[in-house]
Amino acid sequence: MRSKGLGVLLVLLGLGLGATLLRDQVPTGGAQPAARAPLNESGARLQNEQNTIDVVGRFEPGLVFISTEDVVAQDPFAMMFGAAPDQVRQGLGSGFFVNEAGDILTNYHVVAGEGGQGAADRITVRVMNQERSVPAEVIGLAPQYDLALIRAPELSKNLIRPIPLGDSDTLKVGQKAIAMGAPFGLEFSVTEGIVSSTARQIPIGFSTSGAGAGLTQKAIQTDAAINPGNSGGPLLDSSGRVIGINTQIYSPSGQATGVGQSAGVGFAIPINTARRLLPRLQAAGGQVVRAPDIGVTPGLLVQSRGQVLPVGLSVLSTRGKRDLRLPERGLVVGAVQPGSAGARAGLRPGTREAAFRGGVILLGGDVITAAGGQPVDAYEDLQSALIDRKEGDTVTLTVVRAGQTRQVQLTLDASAFGTAQQ
């Protein structure tokens, strides 16, 4: 450490001496330096820079810093032999206000308890320019979507500054993205980049049992710097509206060190996914909100980077789909679980398997092309269309069967909400 400090000192000294020698060697004569006008900083600002300043100044007060504490119980028998007592695991993350009632949207993994089960023992929040943290309570948890809704009853109403929600369905690649959060615990930090992709399919969330992954969903990819602590914070557009919730990063260095760091590839949950789920989270009473499951299994699977992923028909060639009498886009139904909502609606599973380079498809069954008027091309599209539905709702599915398009009425009964993906 000493040699390193000395090296830095020598570099600094060298730069200083070099500047002195150079200045002494340049003849100045009697010339006087030209007078310089004072820098007009406000006039020098670029339009994009001023826009960022305006957005941050207006909406950063709606950002929330979240801290958690969770008691990690030790083996009681090990304690008899001098092992350490129970330990407290601490966590940090971000969130943001979504309404005047003080509801705070964040990631489930920010407030999750030890082992991914339920919420942490203690959750506190702090808003901008406030030194005091106040306790927060869970309103609803959605592990499969990595979303949670919390509220701080003791927080003064005048400190609640909701950030308006945008429309993630209208995003274009290349538009501005502003990320807010607390990277590495550096509270109320802001970074800027662009939307790199609007429909990157990645596994998001956790199973309701705390083991395994959640749903494969569409995510927004951005190069705005996102690091540990940014989770749960908002991703804003140039109008200051929330377009996503920062949730994950791709970090090659994290595979070696165990600590993720930004590599310019971050992911955010589209705000429209959270918007559709919000009513159910608000009515959850602190309980887990499960994704509706109609009992169908995707029938088109491909190999990608060592994983088998369900995909939509849009990945196949037009000629191949024409030869197989398949629509341009849609979710191929591979299997239908007996007794499920899908089975009661009469959905038909695939009956024969056809392999192709890099994947396999089950043919002879239904292809779902729309649900509730929303286009469906993959399983996450179906989940997105059902996410804000409740038990008893009827959804119209557009289905292609044997080359013919038909409408199928599907009722979300108790089985759709009692059979969570594990």
UniProtKB/TrEMBL annotation:
Residues 297-403 form the PDZ domain. SMART domains: PDZ. GO terms for biological process: proteolysis. One of its GO terms (molecular function) is serine-type endopeptidase activity. It comes from the Bacteria. Keywords: Hydrolase, Protease. SUPFAM superfamilies: PDZ domain-like (SSF50156), Trypsin-like serine proteases (SSF50494). It holds the Pfam family Trypsin_2. The keyword Hydrolase applies. Belongs to the peptidase S1C family. This is Peptidase S1. It comes from Deinococcus arcticus. The lineage of its organism: Bacteria, Thermotogati, Deinococcota, Deinococci, Deinococcales.
